[in-house]
Amino acid sequence: MEILVITGLSGSGKSQAASYLEDMGYYTVDNLPAEMMVKFAEFCVSAGGRYDRVALVYDIRAGEPFAGLTEVMTRIRAMGVTCHMLFLEASSATIINRYKETRRTHPLSVGGKSIEDSVRAERELLQPIRDHADFILDTTSLSTAKLRSEIGNLFGGQSDRMGLNVNVLSFGFKHGIPIEADLVFDVRFMPNPFYVAELKKKTGLDREVQDFVFSFRQTHEFMNQLEKMVTFLLPLYGEEGKSVLVIAIGCTGGHHRSVAVAHALSEYIARAGYQVTENHRDISR
């Protein structure tokens, strides 16, 4: 079992980091007091594996001395739980601008204290905690996409580090283009198995149909170009923070050519190391 404590300066991106971890399968809890972390860890241990990866956000809103956090983490580790701390920070100018943009009030801005003074005071208050952090991430120059990528690199599996889940979808144009599609490719130029008597009732998941579709030069040339394009595009979509990409392959009815090509493309993307799902919208129509 793993518990990751997320802490750091107000306005440094802790909530965003927690949401990205949640997308990666972490069970996240925001604003949990340190003493309650021990009880929560005990509950997770007794849950029989239901909470294998947990992220707990802890910050100044807890209203308690930060010195107790390191002691609590030591107690959690003594239970046999892997426990790490991620500390997020940013430059004072960046944090001030973020508060101005959101028009939120800094937690320490009481009694007429300026945001700048509040940030300075919080930075001094958190320095001992920062010194004990396992990971320190400066978000000053990180876009939301880059922050997601950094979180994936630190705490994700291979598919999380790739930053992208791909859904390859076959469809028939006569039933309409899928509205969720990001990329659409038309394979109606390929010879149609529908007009071959022994293949008409089969689908692109049957070996006979696949062999027919891929027996033509144009199919192989198309797949070669499509694979090159996918190899070029997927890392770029991942870098921009896109979490799901839908690639739609269409033929006339969605039974033969599009299914065979979508199946082959899914296998190629999986071999490239991405998490991929394969769906055939119109195969049963």
According to CATH, the fold-level topology of the largest domain is Rossmann fold
Inertia-based shape? elongated
How many domains, in number, for the residues? Answer: 2
Q: How does CATH name the architecture of the largest domain?
A: 3-Layer(aba) Sandwich
Largest sheet: 5 strands, parallel
Alpha-beta content class: alpha/beta
Quote the beta fraction: 15-25%
Task: Enumerate how many helices there are, as a single number.
Answer: 10
The topology string of helices and strands comes to EHEHEHEHHEHHEEHHEHE
What does it look like?
The strands form two sheets. The protein has a five-stranded parallel sheet, with helices on both faces. A four-stranded parallel sheet has the order 7-8-6-9, covered by helices on one side. Helices cover 43% and strands 19% of the residues. Helix 2 (34-45) packs parallel to helix 3 (67-77) and helix 9 crosses helix 10 (257-271). The chain has helices at 14-23, 34-45, 67-77, 92-102, 115-131, 144-155, 158-162, 207-213, 217-239, 257-271, and strands at residues 2-8, 27-29, 53-57, 82-89, 135-138, 165-172, 183-186, 244-251, 275-280. With 285 residues, it is an alpha/beta fold. The chain contains ten helices and nine strands. The chain is elongated, with a radius of gyration of 25 Å. The protein folds into two domains: 2-156, P-loop containing nucleotide triphosphate hydrolases (Rossmann fold), CATH 3.40.50.300; 163-280, no CATH class. The mean pLDDT is 90.
List keywords for this structure.
285 residues; four-stranded parallel β-sheet; alpha/beta; five-stranded parallel β-sheet; 43% helix; 9 strands; 19% strand; Rossmann fold
